[in-house]
Amino acid sequence: MGFFGLEPNQRYLGIWYYADPKTIVWVANRDNPVSSSSSFLTIENDGNLVVKDKSRTYFTTGLPSASGSASWTLKLEDTGNLILQDGSGKQMWSSFSFPTDTFLPGMYMEKAMKLTSWKTQNDPGSGSYVFQKDTVFGYNNYTIFYGKRLHWKSGFGLESNINPTKMPIAAIHLLSRSNTTKTLNNSRLVMGSSGEIQFYYWDLTLGKWFLNWSEPKDYCGKYSACGQNSYCDMSKKNEYNSFCNCVPGFDLIPDVVTSEKVCKRTAPICIGNDTNFLKMEIVKIDVTFETFMESKSELECKEKCLGLDCCQAYSYSAVGNEELARVGVPGGKQGCWIWYSGSQLVDLQVSDGAGGRILSIRNPISKGAYFFLYF
């Protein structure tokens, strides 16, 4: 731990690895660089840990004033956790509770915890990308926001095992502190300045970091890269030189408000018995605000969808997920996800040569008997 500088006249208090001083894992004054050479770290009379010089304070732990703080001490643990403790050894503050862009073994990803990227590789200031737990599902599901816009969303087993956004089990164990093996002790998760969440491990033999996994790794990995009612396919571009295509029964039509071309239905549904379902194979789709219903067969799933107000689409899975079912996450049991009424199909992706789930999209019979998007 100490002061470091990446640009002239800009110094920061940070924590790094003894074996790799260039990898900074925590920065105290990330948005308030020190310009003078007379700055120092101290514990104030009120108990707060501060970075300051003669003219101003650049960082403070912001604790309420405490009596008896003259006996407080600061300890840097081998885990990388900086701990402020009172005279009895009670922890009053720790850097693990206030991470910057890096998640280390021994931390626990609370619902309110966030990893905020650096501005650039050479500027540790708070960047534009934020990694955190999904605020809806929560359980082993994570998101990246770019400002207020959802940039990426992890899969958590509902779509298929080949869902490209699904996090590796080692990264999930690291975030949930459910595994303390030596392998995880030599790993870290970083919210990169260019928008990727990155999982690294340290090779003890070679003595350097290796990137094990990152997302989003391509255009289709971004959340809803193609917008509503369209799918992304990195294996080929269409006639518009785009990876995006409308789902069966939808065509590109200029929006009446923005004039931007969006995928909309070209024929009405939910009228009389003129109903058919066109099918396509997908590797991911967002189900956050959709309805899940237990079903023993695809036929039962289809009937339940048609029993709702203007059924739009459904996706049936004969195989549940015991872990998700045990914690009460929707979709953990055998059954189907249903889109109805004003629901939109969002964040769809297909993949060359990969098997996935079947999505059945409601269309008039005039659109055909079936449409399987296989590779």
From TrEMBL:
<dbReference type="InterPro" id="IPR003609">
    <property type="entry name" value="Pan_app"/>
</dbReference>
<dbReference type="InterPro" id="IPR001480">
    <property type="entry name" value="Bulb-type_lectin_dom"/>
</dbReference>
<keyword id="KW-1015">Disulfide bond</keyword>
<feature type="domain" description="Bulb-type lectin">
    <location>
        <begin position="1"/>
        <end position="97"/>
    </location>
</feature>
<protein>
    <submittedName>
        <fullName>Apple-like protein</fullName>
    </submittedName>
</protein>
<dbReference type="InterPro" id="IPR000858">
    <property type="entry name" value="S_locus_glycoprot_dom"/>
</dbReference>
<dbReference type="GO" id="GO:0048544">
    <property type="term" value="P:recognition of pollen"/>
</dbReference>
<feature type="domain" description="Apple">
    <location>
        <begin position="270"/>
        <end position="363"/>
    </location>
</feature>
<dbReference type="Pfam" id="PF08276">
    <property type="entry name" value="PAN_2"/>
</dbReference>
<dbReference type="Pfam" id="PF00954">
    <property type="entry name" value="S_locus_glycop"/>
</dbReference>
<dbReference type="Pfam" id="PF01453">
    <property type="entry name" value="B_lectin"/>
</dbReference>
<dbReference type="InterPro" id="IPR036426">
    <property type="entry name" value="Bulb-type_lectin_dom_sf"/>
</dbReference>
<keyword id="KW-0325">Glycoprotein</keyword>
<keyword id="KW-0732">Signal</keyword>
